[in-house]
Structures are given as structure tokens and as C-alpha cells.
Amino acid sequence: MQRFLVPLDGSHLAEQALPYAKEFVSKMAGTLYLVRVVTISRQLAAASMVGPGGMESMATVDVGAIDKAIELETQEARTYLSQQSERLQREGLRVEWEVRQGIPADEIREAVKAHNIDAVIITTHGRSGLGRVVFGSVSDRIIRDTHVPVIVIKPK
């Protein structure tokens, strides 16, 4: 049985990989594995902006507030993946899902290893040039760092 991982971040852009994944899973009687990564650095960056001192204010950041923000985003991610999973299961697909915390490309790579994934199906934001250098590319890192086929969908 083939296992296909689709990383979702809650955006319509990322969800554009789902029709392709559904086709692969249906044809191969496989399992669709959905992953959403809660990016902790986003909460830390937001917390550092709270105080007038910018990064200097990090020393006075309320760690409890950061933990609460991470937990809220994690719960939202669980709800989102649960809803996606239920919808896909009603269409007759076998679906599993997981919320992870960390750097998206690293966590996706670890999920591939941990769950014996056969292929990753991901959309790309389509950045090029300076945008790709500044923001990086999760899909590029997944292509480079995972040792399974990666199907990259260019969104409409």
C-alpha cells in the first residue's frame, strides 16, 4: 500500500495539491497522510515585536503567552486537519493526519521517515529570484532532503 504525504498550512494554495493526491491514493488504494506544521518561530517573532525595544524586549517576553499562542495555533491546526480528513474520508479515501511543531521542511522530512511515506505531493508558492533567497522554499528543501519522490504542483 502506497502512502502519500500532503503538507497543508491552512491556505487555499496548499490545498490545491489535494485533487492530485486524491487521484494517486484512489488509483493505488493507498493512504493519504496530511501534515500541518505549527511554526514556533512565528510566535517568537511576534512576541519580540510586542515591546518597544524589539529584540531587546525578548528578555521580558511572557513565555506563558508564547506557549498559549502555540497551543492555540496547534488546536486550530488539529481542527483544520480533522475537518479535511473527515471530508476526504467521506469521499472514500483512507486518511491519517498529524500536527507537528517546528520548521516546516524539517518536520515534513521527519514525518516522511517516521511514517514510511512513499511520495510527497506539495504545492509551491512560485517565488523566484530574491523572494526565494529571502524566504526560502519548503518544496526545494523537501526535494533535496527527502529520499522519496516529490510531486510539486504549481498552483493556479
Short structural summary:
With 156 residues, the chain is α/β, with parallel strands linked by helices. 51% of the residues lie in helices and 19% in strands.
Return residue spans where pLDDT drops below 50 for at least 5 consecutive residues.
Answer: 129-135
Number of strands: 5
Number of helices: 7
Beta-sheet strand percentage? Answer: 15-25%
The CATH superfamily is HUPs
State the secondary-structure class: alpha/beta
Give the key terms:
about 160 residues; five-stranded parallel β-sheet; 5 strands
Please tell me about this protein's structure.
The chain is α/β, with parallel strands linked by helices and 156 residues long. It has a single domain, classed as 3-Layer(aba) Sandwich (Rossmann fold). Helices cover 51% and strands 19% of the residues. It has helices spanning 12-15, 18-28, 40-50, 63-90, 104-114, 130-135, 138-145, and strands spanning 3-7, 31-38, 94-101, 119-123, 150-153. Strands 3-2-1-4-5 form a five-stranded parallel sheet, with helices on both faces. The two termini are 30 Å apart.
Layout of helices and strands, plus pairs?
Blueprint: E1 3-7, H1 12-15, H2 18-28, E2 31-38, H3 40-50, H4 63-90, E3 94-101, H5 104-114, E4 119-123, H6 130-135, H7 138-145, E5 150-153
Parallel strand pairs: 1-2, 1-4, 2-3, 4-5
